[in-house]
């Protein structure tokens, strides 16, 4: 399936990244040895969510502004 524009592809990429990491963390929580490790995993997931959202926002902002070098 080909998505029509950059923003749609970026949205699909960040959703797959966040959901995939969330499922991985969920699986590790079930196998983890203790509560402290579970809290660390959830915090790492939240930090990655924030970083992913920030990165996607910056990429989309630059794409909408049109000053990228990939305009051909």
Automatic annotation (TrEMBL):
Stretches that traverse the bilayer: 12-30, 42-60
Keywords, ordered alphabetically: Membrane, Transmembrane, Transmembrane helix
InterPro entries hit by this protein: PhaG_MnhG_YufB
Pfam families, per the entry: PhaG_MnhG_YufB (PF03334)
Coiled coil: none
GO molecular function, one term: sodium:proton antiporter activity
Identification of the protein by name: Cation:proton antiporter
